[in-house]
Amino acid sequence: MSAFDCVIVGGGIVGAALADVLSADGVSVALVEARSIGAGTTACGMGHLVAMDDNAAELALTSWSVSLWRELADGLPRAVEYDACGTLWLAADDEEMAAVSAKVANYRAAGVRAEVLDSAALHEAEPALAPGLVGALRVVDDAVLYPPLAARTFALRAQARGARLMTGCPVRELRSGSVVISNGEVLTARHIVLAAGVASPTLCPGLPISPRKGHLLITRRGAPVVHHQLVELGYLKSAHGTDGASVAFNAQPRVTGQLLLGSSRQPGDATREVDAALLERMLKRAAMFLPGLDGLQALRVWTGLRPATPDGLPLLGPHPEKPWLWLACGHEGLGITTATGSARLVADQLLGRTSPIDARPYSPARFLAVSSREVAHA
Ligand SMILES: Cc1cc2nc3c(=O)[nH]c(=O)nc-3n(C[C@H](O)[C@H](O)[C@H](O)COP(=O)(O)OP(=O)(O)OC[C@H]3O[C@@H](n4cnc5c(N)ncnc54)[C@H](O)[C@@H]3O)c2cc1C
Q1: 126 with 89: CB under 8 angstroms?
Q2: Residue 7, ligand 1, Cβ within 6 A
Q3: Distance (Å, rounded) from C-alpha 125 to C-alpha 355?
Q4: Gap from CA of 178 to ligand 1 centroid (Å)
Q5: How many angstroms does the Cα of residue 21 sit away from the middle of ligand 1?
Q6: Predicted local distance difference test score (pLDDT) of residue 339
Q7: Does 187 contact ligand 1 (Cβ within 6 A)?
Q8: Residue 150 and which of 81, 159, 230, 335 are 20 to 30 A apart at CA?
Q9: Which of ligand 1's atoms lies nearest the C-alpha of 214?
Q10: Which has the closest alpha carbon to 13: 171, 174, 153?
Q11: Of all helices (H) and strands (E), which one includes residue 19?
Q12: 375 has which bridge partners?
């Protein structure tokens, strides 16, 4: 048996970021991953580091997380491809342009740099966009990166500080004070953190996490040149809808001269097959915004499963019925962005420190306490 202060189950971007933060704090850590670091949803994500203002809790966590990424950026290897390109939220009509004015105020109130571009300024900023767009909101400090290598960087930094990295080790069972690996090895620990993304309910039944499938496509080199991460404002309707499949235009410039194109959402779908009809819808939408895509070849298409909670916020904190178990899961479509802030929030709670933002909106008790009361009264 090996003893640690903390065993983290799941080496995606969230578990790896937590291993990095805890090991820097002198905590003895084991990071246990069934496959390889970043091989889960993290390998399928787009890598947009984005401040999102759908609600106050989302804005607090995303904007803080983006600023933490910015602090880390100089220390990241080039292969992580961190690029502070900013985001343009595109307004296709006057109604969406009205939303831009509300959003800019929201962002600025949270200390996030944002500005409004009219139609002429937008087309000067991004000449490859289709004519006719009304304007855009530019969020200056957003960035993009390559998620699996970011996760690997965190894990290797933790390992260099003495953390034990265990890959190819599926965890079979979580117990109070220990974690059982499928080969029978038992790791004892004062704290256990479940960061297994969409697989978390397998190890802790009852967690309110369900898959939300998404498709992405990467083009060959020679794609229209774009300078920002581009997202249609209609994305917000698609991202937060809960019924039916939806698509929205989302294009990310890569330093390789390729474009990463998204995205789709299929709530509750845990399959990994590419849905050709949905992909076609996604590409038609992309071509409406970027006409230069016509005739360009795709290099690869893939899907991934976002770990979604009912309110779109992650579960960060102690399990209310199992005080020995900490949760760091359920990040839906924002887990690359919020890995840095999530890691700090969980580490601060574990070590009894105050965090710069209020951790309560992400407390697992908001779901799990209710379900346990219902059981008690059943
Ligand atoms: C199409 C798509 C686009 C996206 N785009 C973005 C984006 O632009 N920006 C953004 O912020 N987010 C984006 N996301 C969301 C983001 O990818 C996820 O929120 C994030 O990767 C979740 O990270 P995680 O560490 O919680 O989970 P994962 O990366 O899934 O990591 C969990 C790990 O746990 C391991 N595991 C599972 N079971 C066990 C077990 N029993 N024992 C040991 N290990 C286990 C898995 O192998 C996996 O490596 C996107 C997602 C998709 C699908």
Answers
A1: no
A2: no
A3: 37
A4: 24
A5: 18
A6: 99
A7: no
A8: 230
A9: 1
A10: 153
A11: helix 13-24
A12: none
Number of neighbours of residue 358 by Cβ within 10 angstroms: 14
The pLDDT score that the predictor gives to residue 237 is 58
SS3 state at 78:
helix
Q: For ligand 1, say whether the CB of 341 is within 6 Å of any of its atoms.
A: no
Q: Tell me how long the chain is.
A: 378
Instruction: Give the list of residues 6+ apart from residue 340 with CB closer than 8 angstroms, or none.
Output: 17, 65, 68, 69, 72
Residue 278 CB less than 6 A away from ligand 1: no
Cβ(47) – ligand 1 distance below 6 Å: yes
Q: Rounded to whole angstroms, how far apart are CA atoms 45 and 65?
A: 17
**Cα–Cα distance, 40 to 67 (Å, whole number):** 25
Q: Give the pLDDT score at 241.
A: 53
pLDDT of residue 222: 87
Ligand 1 mean position, distance from CA 24 (Å): 23
Looking at residue 377, its pLDDT comes to 43
Pairing of strands 87-91, 135-139: antiparallel
Q: Which atom of ligand 1 is nearest to the CA of 215?
A: 1
Q: What is the pTM assigned to this prediction? A: 0.96
What pLDDT, on the 0 to 100 scale, is given for residue 261? 97
Q: Is the dihedral of CA 272, 274, 275, 278 positive or negative?
A: positive
- Measured in angstroms, how far is the CA atom of residue 266 from the centroid of ligand 1? 16
Q: How far is CA 168 from the centre of its chain?
A: 23
